[in-house]
User: Which sequence fits this backbone?
């Protein structure tokens, strides 16, 4: 058994497009558990910490600005290999390249929305998951 936890964000576009239920359905249907879930507007501190690895990249500032512009939903999900598994459910970063069947592939719309609005974030390693869970849910640990 390698039960682990990951940090998922339903980005502001997912909230605005009323896709929370659709995305949560996919997470739960896969068999992952929801350990914590909260909708709120992220602070600049949370976002600069969360996206520290991207600081200096051209999309960093637009990304941080966008993520703080409206409410998002932060989630801690749990399950066997959930870190890699949720990344598979999410699909490739760019919605046009994301495979059909994935969240970004089925629901992402790059023709009228920028890549930044690709619906979800998921931790990419056990180290990122621990770091990100501590940012969004310090009480969960
Ligand atoms: P992912 O969210 O698939 O882990 P990432 O960590 O490389 O992707 O980038 C974080 C977010 O930044 C991504 O979800 C959308 C945005 N982003 C990444 N590359 C981008 C680019 N070339 N142009 C615009 N936004 C980009
Ligand atoms: Mg990433």
Assistant:
């Amino acid at each position: 058994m390698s039960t682990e936890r990951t940090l998922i964000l339903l980005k502001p576009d997912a909230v605005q497009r009323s896709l929370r239920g659709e995305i949560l359905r996919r997470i739960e249907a896969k068999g992952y558990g929801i350990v914590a879930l909260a909708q709120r507007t992220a602070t600049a501190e949370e976002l600069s910490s969360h996206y520290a690895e991207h600081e200096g990249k051209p999309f960093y500032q637009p990304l941080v600005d966008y993520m703080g512009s409206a409410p998002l939903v932060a989630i801690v999900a749990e399950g066997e290999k959930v870190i890699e598994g949720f990344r598979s459910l999410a699909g490739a970063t760019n919605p046009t390249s994301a495979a059909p069947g994935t969240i970004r592939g089925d629901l992402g719309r790059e023709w009228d929305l920028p890549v930044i609005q690709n619906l979800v974030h998921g931790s990419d390693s056990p180290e990122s998951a621990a770091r990100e869970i501590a940012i969004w849910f310090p009480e969960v640990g």
